[in-house]
Amino acid sequence: MLMLVDCSNCRAQLQLPPGAKSIRCALCLAVTRIAQPRDVVAPPPPPAYSSSTSNNNYYHHYQPPQQQQAPISYVPPGQPASVNGQKRAVICGISYTGSRNQLKGCVNDANCMKYMLINNFKFPESSIIMLTEEEKDPLRRPTKHNIRMAMYWLVQGCQPGDSLVFHFSGHGSQQRNYNGDEIDGYDETICPLDFETQGMIIDDEINATIVNPLPRGVKLHSIIDACHSGTVLDLPYLCRMDRTGKYVWEDHRPKSGVWKGTNGGEVISFSGCDDDQTSADTSALSKVTSTGAMTYSFIQAIEHGHAKTYGDMLTAMRSTIRKTDGGLGGGGTVTSLLSMLLTGGSLGSGLRQEPQLTANESFDVYKKVFSI
């Protein structure tokens, strides 16, 4: 029978083979040494995870952290994070190889994002978890369970000054919302590699895992290159910008009063398109290989010096996509086919994707300096 132990560093639950005296965590790579059974005192389970036994085998059940109830006028304390602490990132690229939903550019997106974080923003390679189908380790494949564990690891033990990044390139969709906390009546989702059997990860869970617990002084950037991803982190504010660069912040706080912000930290998310749009997987941008249009435009804005402020960043990303020959509409892309299959939408809608910016607090997008 497999024994469950907590990683001595990140507290993730690990399955210890019979007779083993130590185990290396696949997430943080720390080695946990196991005491003799008579000396073991069972530690309390880490938040949001529990285990049960079935047929003499352990099966992990994930329970999203409880949402903090607060009045709708609640504003978390604290100042924006100063990036002088540790850097940590989770990067997911899913191509769904061999399935009817196959994409071409998502693993390229993941590799390019890793390269940029290391070379442009000095992220240590050891602090980046890559979840792609190219990974040999089964715990590094982008399954629903592994993505959940990686999100939990990303925010576990973070301290003031830390800079975190969550990047996802793959399929996204929507499903009917029944608790009344979505303006359009739909929850946004990301699709793990095994979503057809294990289900999708909805925005409520993403928010509860990497947004809601974020402490004061910690900054999280999210880059989501997927269909219907405008509000996929369920953040309270969406920057509605027109083509002239004028903008207003839309208030997306649910009427129920459930707090969708942080515990004092700062979260800013760039997403591939609005909630009712699709994102393209295309070779029209790089001319060399397939990429996600949003990831490509995000990296290009940084490398070409167009990322001085968050407003400059968003404008540059949209301009790159808008100027692409032939456009990047949803019709005809593999991504939009998945959208049709999962949500009942129709192909050929001709929607052009427009990258979106959401945040836990509103700010002047042309004055706030972009930094990771």
TrEMBL record:
Residue ranges occupied by any Zinc finger LSD1-type domain in the UniProt entry: 7-31
Gene Ontology biological-process entries: proteolysis
All residue ranges annotated as the Peptidase C14 caspase domain in the record: 87-359
Segments crossing the lipid bilayer: none
Single GO cellular component term: cytoplasm
Region (Disordered): 40-62
Bias (Low complexity): 49-62
A molecular-function term among this protein's GO annotations: cysteine-type endopeptidase activity
Protein family membership: Belongs to the peptidase C14B family.
Alphabetical list of NCBIfam families matching this protein: LSD1
Protein name (Swiss-Prot/TrEMBL): Uncharacterized protein
Organism of this sequence: Daucus carota subsp. sativus
